[in-house]
Write a structure and sequence with these properties.
single chain; 110 residues; two-stranded antiparallel ribbon; globular
Length: 110
């Protein structure tokens, strides 16, 4: 919430433009700052077609097998210790070498 308030107030210029995925299965809790088990990330260009909504849409291509079970929205690359906006877990999606997985996340501010 702190980073969201800073964005709204113009105190931060780091927009949330990264989607990370991971293999962690622990349910999200208040206070999470990272994914449980980071796998990879993509940088995305947010879009907005509806007032009060922003869509982050990214496609991951895999170089090996994994069971992807979590995703998060961040304001920078994983290597820079970014801020987490949202995290979700889901039933694991098994991927193999050269598979692609698309994550499309709609954030509504009301």
């Amino acid at each position: 919430l702190e980073m969201t308030a800073k964005l709204i107030g113009g105190l931060s210029i780091k927009a949330y433009t990264y989607i990370q995925i991971g293999t962690g299965t622990a349910a999200p809790v208040i206070g999470n700052t990272t994914l449980q088990t980071y796998h990879s990330e993509v940088s995305v260009t947010p879009t907005s077609a509806v007032v009060g909504q922003v869509v982050l849409d990214g496609t991951f291509t895999f170089a090996g097998a994994a069971a992807i079970a979590e995703a998060g929205i961040f304001n920078d690359a994983q290597a820079t210790a970014p801020n987490l906006l949202a995290r979700v877990t889901f039933t694991a999606i098994s991927v193999q070498n050269q598979d692609q997985l698309r994550i499309a996340w709609t954030v509504t501010v009301a």
